[in-house]
Amino acid sequence: MSGFCVSASHLALPDVGLISYAEMQDVGGRICDAVSPNFPIIGDADDGYGNAMSAKRTVEGYIKAGFAGILIEDQMAPKRCGHTGPRPVCDRETSVARVRAACDARDESLEDIVVFARSDARSSMGLDEALERVKAYVDAGADAVFIDALQSKEEMQRFCDACPDTPKMANMLEGGGMTPICQPRELHAMGFKIVAYPLSMLAVSVKAMETALQGIMFEGYPDEELLPTFEELKDAVGMNEYLEESRRYKLGSSSRTPA
User: Is 23 inside any structural domain?
Assistant: First the structure.
């Protein structure tokens, strides 16, 4: 669950720190309810929404929402999308304390949630500082690590080499981010275990809606080749399944044998 996407779809606002913890937890709870238990969901928790104690509360809240993983970063408030130029990060001691608090919340809960620790230091302080930070996050208990906005395959390989025994996430930001786009097989060879395609669903939705609206504006009706049929749409949202199940509860439809 991307903070960029929640901010865009829920508030119609950019990812610049305007979305709150409560809004992210609320949206996340509904997402987890919709897909659980079939799909584990990782929730973007931005900077933990405050200090170390706030980060601890955020993990506790995300556990209640049903998340299988939580991603906390080291940006200073107000945070923003990692591929929009240099972003100030908090000092290393503060960022490590956030991760340690998040891991304490994980351990104290006895729940199976994975803590992803992210550094945005590459853009503002350089790769060496980002590497030192993620190694410190591993020492603080992080289950997986992530450096956002790496700028070459060589940097991606250095990241993997720096934390060989810890799962690492790659971010394939679609449409022109700072990180080179690589195929999953290539990422695996480097040493990555997880890959995010954070904007694909939002981006194709925006493009499709713009195209449909242009069709209505200029043609009086959207291009039907771009639309599912009504039956297909009902299937997608569960309408047909609902109607089938509801027939069980109509008067005279009971299949139970009277005593």
Answer: yes
* Structural domain span for residue 173: 3-196
Q: How many CB atoms lie within 10 A of CB 159?
A: 25
Q: 């992530």: which residue's tokens? A: 146
- Domain-located, residue 257: no
156 pLDDT band, cuts 50/70/90, is: very high
Q: What is the pTM of this model?
A: 0.89
State whether 74 and 23 are in the same domain.
yes
Q: What is the CATH number of the domain that holds 154?
A: 3.20.20.60
Residues 6+ apart with CB under 8 A from 92: 129, 132, 133, 136
With CA atoms as reference, report the closest residue to 55 among 121, 141, 126.
141
139 plus 219 within the same structural domain: no
Instruction: Give the number of other CB atoms < 10 A from CB of residue 24.
Output: 24
- Note the pLDDT tens digit of each residue in 201-240: 999 999 999 999 999 999 999 999 999 999 999 999 999 9
What's the farthest any 2 CA atoms get from each other in the chain? 77
Residues 80-102 have a mean pLDDT of: 90
The answer on 106 and 38 residing in a single domain is yes
CB 171 within 8 A of CB 82: yes
